[in-house]
Design brief:
- By secondary structure, this protein is of the alpha/beta class.
- The chain has a domain of 146 residues: Vaccinia Virus protein VP39 (Rossmann fold, 3-Layer(aba) Sandwich), CATH 3.40.50.
- It is built from five helices and ten strands, in the order ααβαβαββαββββββ.
- A five-stranded parallel β-sheet has the order 3-2-1-4-5.
- β6 and β7 form a beta hairpin.
- The longest helix is centred in the first third of the chain and has 20 residues.
- The C terminus is likely disordered.
């Protein structure tokens, strides 16, 4: 018998509780994996969306990546399950308007949008941290216009498991990684610090409630 999924309310609560710390770390540039690895590669995959209607599914992070696409000329709508994340994104939009609409909604239920609303649906490192990836894909497909573009990035389930950890050398440098419990389907809450966060900064517990199996990772 498989373990039950995290509920949407549980996932929202984790993100709400961590929204302020998460946004602060991102704004201070401590998420170097995002800045130097994920974003450049993912933005290249997404391509030119100027003038297109785009949905950012799981915008989180106070709308950080949503604003990157808006500055590049796309017309953005951001949705996130966390009310607090949406509040932070709306505050940022009021301070420096880019014409972005932010709405609290789960990417597993986009019924506030009619069919074929968007030219593209994107999701930056979001769909591995919540329940029902299948529903998320169905909803993203439904709101896409014919010939529309869907692009999402997630953590690789091989390298982030319940038993994974870094091995450090005598100088504290990461030299190898242990991956354990790969086939364990149990859901868990992962806690971590951003790569470039200063030692004195309080540890940021991840709001991620992540279900993992040998071949899938769902948010």
């Amino acid at each position: 018998m498989s373990e039950p999924e995290f509920s949407l309310d549980e996932v929202a609560r984790y993100w709400d509780d961590n929204a302020a710390a998460w946004a602060r770390e991102v704004r201070q540039g401590h998420d170097v994996a995002r800045e130097l690895l994920n974003n450049p590669a993912f933005l290249a995959i997404i391509g030119d969306l100027r003038g297109r209607q785009v949905l950012d599914a799981g915008c989180g992070d106070d709308g950080y990546n949503t604003r990157i696409l808006a500055r590049a000329g796309a017309h953005l709508t951001g949705v996130d399950l966390s009310a607090r994340m949406i509040e932070l994104a709306q505050e940022e939009e009021r301070g420096a308007p880019l014409g972005i609409r932010y709405v609290r909604a789960s990417y597993t239920d986009l019924t506030l949008f009619t069919d074929a609303t968007f030219d593209a649906v994107v999701s930056f490192m979001a769909m591995m941290d919540g329940p029902r990836f299948d529903l998320a894909m169905a909803e993203c497909f439904r709101v896409l216009r014919p010939g529309g573009r869907l692009a999402f990035s997630i953590t690789h389930p091989c390298f982030i498991t319940r038993g994974s950890r870094w091995i450090l050398n005598e100088q504290g440098v990461k030299v190898s990684r242990v991956v354990g419990n790969y086939f364990d389907p149990t859901r868990w809450v992962e806690r971590f610090r951003f790569t470039d966060a200063p030692v004195e900064a309080p540890s940021s517990p991840s709001p991620a409630s992540t279900a993992r199996s040998p071949s899938t990772s769902t948010r």
